[in-house]
Amino acid sequence: QVQLVESGGGLVQTGGSLRLSCAGSGLSFTSYILGWFRQAPGKEREFVAAISWSGGSTYYADSVKGRFTISRDNAKNTVYLQMNSLKPEDTAVYYCAADFDPYDYGSSWLGRRASSGNYDYWGQGTQVTVSS
Question: Is residue 111 classed as helix, strand or coil in its secondary structure?
Fold first, then answer.
């Protein structure tokens, strides 16, 4: 049984930082692109960031580029999202997800895979709230 379990969400002031973690089990971790998505109340789920199986390629939504950093530790079956300079508009439930793809074709390929429909497994989400 595949499980993705997020942690690290919480309440932070504008300009603050949070680090989300997502631990995977029941899957061959290095065969998957890992991504972060978010969904704010009343809005559709949107792509945030993705990382290739090797960690060698990353891709970000324009709204978080330069503020968020995605990374992974394959030895720990964990993917991270470091979020800096947080804004109220970053408030959302954050989900990690896994997309079966054991190749690394670069960041542009990650961008083409950025649709939520391409991802096979999802975590339950963790709430991030940024106060103004």
Answer: helix
Among residues 115, 123, 129, 121, the alpha carbon closest in space to that of 27 is found at: 121
Nearest Cα residue to 43 out of 63, 23, 21, 17: 63
Q: Which residues, at least 6 apart from 27, have a Cβ–Cβ distance to it below 8 Å?
A: 2, 98, 121
**29-58 pLDDT, tens per residue?**
999 999 999 999 999 999 999 999 999 999
**What residue has token string 């339950």?**
124
Give the other-Cβ count within 10 Å of 92's Cβ: 22
d(CA 92, CA 87): 11
Task: Answer yes or no: is pLDDT of 103 > 90.
Answer: no
Confirm if 79 and 95 have CB atoms less than 8 A apart.
Answer: no
The structure tokens 């947080």 sit at 86
| Largest CA-CA distance found in the chain, in angstroms, rounded | 41
Which CA distances in Å does 102 have to 28, 31, 64, 116, 120?
10, 4, 26, 18, 13
